[in-house]
Input
Amino acid sequence: MNTAIVDIDNTLWQFCDAFYAELKKVNSAFPTVERWDTWDFFVGYCTEEQFLAAVDAVHRRQDSDGHRPCPEAKGFLRSLREQGYRIVIASHRRKEMLGPTERWLRKHELVFDDLHLSFDMTVLFEDAVVVVDDAPQTLEKAATREA
Output
C-alpha cells in the first residue's frame, strides 16, 4: 500500500494564528505572521524557551473547541484514503502531545492510519509516495531522497 505523509500545523489547520496569539502574551510587540520569514523570527522578542513553551501551549490545547481544521482537510484526507493510500499524520511535536493531537484528529473526523510525532519526519520518507507539508526544507528532503 502506498503511504502519504501529511503534516498538521499550517497544513491541516492554521497553527500560526493560535501561535501568534500565544506569542503576543509573551511580548505584545511581537511581529505579525506576515513578517515571519526566517526560522529565528522570534529573536529579540522572546527567549528560545519562551518560544518553545508557546508552541507547546498551542499543541497542548489543540483539542479545544477553538482550533478547527482547514475546511478542505477532511475531504483531502478522505480522498487519499479512497485512492488507497495509507495515511500517516506527522508533526514536529514532543511525544507528550500525542493525546491532544489524537483527540483533535478524531474529534474532527480526520482519517489516518498512524500518528507520528517527532522532530525528524525524514525517517518516514522511505515508504512514502506522497509528502504534504508547509515547510520547504521538509519537501526538499522528500524530493531528493533516494528512490
The mean pLDDT is 92. The helical segments are 15-26, 48-60, 73-82, 98-107, 136-143. The first strand starts at residue 3 and ends at 7. The radius of gyration is 16 Å.
